[in-house]
Amino acid sequence: MALTPITAVDCLARIDHFDAIIDARSEGEYALDHLPGALNWPSLNDEERVLVGTEYKQISPFVARKRGAALVARNVASHIERHVLDKPRDWQPLVYCWRGGQRSGSLALVLGQIGFRVQVIEGGYRAYRRAVMDELERLPERFQFRVLCGKTGSGKSRLLTALHGQGAQVLDLEGLANHRGSVLGLVPGHPQPSQKRFETLLWDALRRLDPARAVWIESESRKVGELRVPEHLIERMRASPCVRVELSVAARVRLLMEDYDFFVKDVPAFCLRLDALRALRGNEVINEWQSAARSGHIEGVVEQLLITHYDPVYMQSMQRNYADFANATLLEPANADHATLAEAARSLRVSAEGG
Questions:
Q1: When you count CB atoms within 10 A of the terminal residue's CB, does the N or C end of the chain come out lower?
Q2: CATH of region 143-353, choose from 3.40.50, 4.10.110, 3.30.70, 1.10.3470
Q3: Which of 11, 97, 149, 271 is catalytic?
Q4: Is 97 a catalytic residue?
């Protein structure tokens, strides 16, 4: 039997070197967060976990362990039959569960008895989670960020995508958070990940970046939708050089009508989202905007949102929080078309990296 414990810190350093990463927790636990690339082979599924936990509390630990052993044995056998029979002798998986105990131990024991070299995370997911949070305090210090600033609708996200297409290094917080960073930013039908999942995705993105090259990022606030950006990353962003993207109001409205076309198609959803601004803008203003939207004048409502709500709030935030904002490099594209922003991205990348 080849069963080897590995610390969470060593696991992060070697995470790309395992033939498979196997999460032995239930599907619900896995959905909330898991190691990058992990496969879910539950030793107990969600319903079974509840059953065993109920028996543990209401009957006795001994009865619950017997029930759990039978369920785990059947599940491990099923995983072996479905996923392992075709694996070569030198296949080397990493296995973990919540605390690195019984659930991962049962699966790892059988895999080890077969003859595979199996590694198990000491302390399980909990230890991994602590290691990730430690990394998120340390990693931002390694990078030289270039922050794209600009009012809502200025094309910052499109420019970030264009920079990525030009080969520049990009950290897309809105992409990781599955949110576009405003009260209208949640895309219908696409919920945000959990906070833990967001932090795992962020760590996974940061670890792949080259500290010798600039990293482009948008000027986000402390929260992207409902998710918090780690404090050390926010601090590094706010101390970094800025590029200020300026676009006409008309061009910004056009961009938002394109990028938020789902609201154009679903006016009731747009009006419902406007309700979130009642405390700030007052019932009379919101009622007027909703009435105009229902009458087919969403474009005019978007313009008013920019001028009276987003722009003042954004400018106050930038001037207060971003040290380099007043001295930012000014970028004034003629429009937010993809070809125009691709050329702007090429220019920015050359100026930042010299080639």
A1: C
A2: 3.40.50
A3: 97
A4: yes
- pLDDT recorded at residue 146: 97
Please, which pLDDT band fits residue 158 given cuts at 50, 70 and 90?
very high
Average pLDDT over residues 273-288: 92
Q: Are strands 39-40 and 242-245 parallel, antiparallel or unpaired?
A: unpaired
Residue 1 has pLDDT above 60, yes or no: no
Give domain 2-133's CATH architecture.
Answer: 3-Layer(aba) Sandwich (3.40)
> Angle between the 283-294 and 267-274 helix axes, to the nearest 10 degrees?
170
- The domain spans of the chain are 2-133, 143-353
At 100, give phi and psi (nearest 5°).
Answer: 75, 30
CA-to-CA dists, residue 53 to 48, 59, 60, 72, angstroms: 8, 10, 10, 14
User: Is residue 344 within 8 Å of 333, Cβ to Cβ?
Assistant: yes
Greater model confidence, 292 or 313: 292
pTM of the model: 0.93
Residue 329 burial (CB count, 10 A): 15
